[in-house]
Amino acid sequence: MRWLGPEKGVIQLATAAVLNAVWDLWARAEGKPLWKLLVDMDPEQIVSCIDFRYITDVLTEKEALDILMKAQAGKQQREDEMLKKGYPAYTTSCAWLGYTDQQLKQLCTDALKSGWTKFKMKVGADLEDDIRRCRLIREMIGPNNTLMIDANQRWDVAEAISRVSRLAEFKPLWIEEPTSPDDVLGHATISKALAPLGIGVATGEQCQNRVMFKQLLQASALQFVQIDSCRLGSVNENLAVLLMAHKFQVPVCPHAGGVGLCELVQHLILFDYVCVSASLDNRMCEYVDHLHEHFTSPVVIQDAHYMPPKDPGYSCEMLDSSVQRHEYPEGEEWKLLMK
User: Where are the transmembrane segments (predicted)?
Assistant: First the structure.
């Protein structure tokens, strides 16, 4: 098993799938949404869920317990705040590569009318096109709303620095995944070079375990931690990363750009605010507006905020009709593909 892994690749993804299901069952058995299950645990129980192997040079059990104990102050007020207002979100749905200018304008207009103030756009195909699209988006959303850019691992290190520097006039808060997700020192080099421009580095959606996050934090290689509910080893390993990020005072802004990821990660970021970070400074959770119709408990967005789920579980149950349509190899969608 360790030869196939360890704690990476298919082994890690399978671990996340199985353990996510176990957490879902646990929350259902308690009759609580997962975030509430976590919030109601005492600090010692949270610490008992974490594997500290390989990370004690950065975070010990005692340090983790101290962080959680300190956050007990004001915990109920923060929970009440989330239930009333929700957790701040940003949208990635307005500016995918390949959208026409008219699509970009219309989607930004619609998003602004719906209360969105934080926008992420994709970059990395062509520099002049990136400049043109960044200018268009910035003009649409105005100077006071937040813009982030995402290259999806497109560039080498020097190229990333050069390209993002050319986009600095549009004042992006961060550049996401500027290079290989495994290149810790490359991210550190990019981070150092872009700091004078006021642009942070965000990464983590392809970060395969807590050790990678440990190194990124140790190297000051990122200014925004992007956990993923299905990439790391489920809730347990994400708890370790949330606590390490807090120790390094790096805000967590989760990745949620795929099928069911919004449904899952909302639980973790709610726990982070209520029980770990106690801060919303420079913090937001990604939202994309597609594929929620396949879930029995889809996310609820109000005024660009995630409203805490109320149904028991991890919000990961799919509708029977969706499962049957996409089940391999007898599902309707697969049969169409194989014709």
Answer: none
